[in-house]
Amino acid sequence: MTEHSLHRRRFLLGGAAAGAGVLLSACTSNEAPASDASANVANAGSDTKPGKPVNIGFSAPAADHGWMAAMTKNARAQAEKFSEVKLDATEGTNDVNQQISQVETLINAKVDVLVILPFDGKALTATGQQAMDAGIPVINLDRVFDTPLAYRTWIGGDNYRMGVNAGDYIAAQLKAKNVANPVIGEVAGIDSLPLTQERSKGFKDALARHGFAVGPRVSAQFTPESGEQQTSNLLQSAAKLDALWNHDDDQGVGVVAAIDNAGRKEFLMVGGAGSRNAMDLIKADSGPLKATVLYSPSMASTAISLARLLGQEKGVGDFAEHEIPAEITTYSAVVTKENVAQYLDVGFDS
After folding, report:
1. What distance in Å separates the CA atoms of residue 190 and residue 226, rounded to the nearest whole number?
2. What's the rounded Cα separation, in Å, for the pair 294 and 222?
3. C-alpha span between 231 and 234 (Å, rounded)
4. Are both 165 and 232 inside the same structural domain?
5. CA Rg value for the chain
6. What pLDDT, in 10s, does the model give residues 144-173?
7. Which of 199, 208, 190 shows the shortest CA–CA distance to 166?
8. Is 115 helix (H, G, I), strand (E, B) or coil?
9. Within this chain, do residues 180 and 147 fall inside the same structural domain, yes or no?
10. What count of Cα atoms within 13 Å lies in the side-chain half-sphere of residue 80?
């Protein structure tokens, strides 16, 4: 991804709200419990029925990168599924001041709910707080504001677990092949970003639990060009590799190109985010890419669904709670040849 698309990725909720507890009724005898309406799920089915009209304002950075373009595309597509939803989407921008101005316009227009994927979470915090103070619930998408007071609900991915799951998968594959003292490379994103640091820490921690360590490591810029250049450097410095983790499938286009150009075939590779082209390569099973760890833009679809429910003062169907959760962290599933078919629907174009 470009430097403009940062602070991102964390996920898997396939486009609909998911993940919370269910209220259970305890039973201390062998008899079937008596029917009790209070034991029922509070909002079962309430999110599927059309409700009152909801005007949702949407603001995101420029769609200058596969993952970011998919975020906006998914948000628009999800809004079209609901006859009572009107989506007011601003033109994507990587200019912080312009995004602030666009969101303020939506606030002044008195939209019912706001979905904001900020170019810079810190810079947009005051604007999110402004909307909340004006009585407009805010769904903060992916790049988190500095305070929870600036949003009603945050939804985004889990960068640390993304690294953990990549490390666990690689370790399992190497152990299955009885590889001792493996050389494990890493093509990270921009090192100055917290999201990159979290992914790398998760990867390092996971490998350490298996008795392994990260070997040669380079940092790219979330672009195919930087991915190719930095991977070429890594391959030149490492005569032998057993595995490689690339943080981002958009920059992974360049990573795969560098591997092909070098004629290297001795190692397995894991990607990150879940692009469609990465899934196609995994399905074909003809190269080093054997898996990718999801950070899916389908979270934008979920954000629109949640915004609709907030505007209609509903909870999430099948959740016991009457209210929508304050935070939802999506899960970074590992996509392999064995399960890729079930995740193709959330793959995005790199």
Report:
1. 10
2. 15
3. 5
4. yes
5. 22
6. 999 999 999 999 999 999 999 999 999 999
7. 199
8. strand
9. no
10. 6
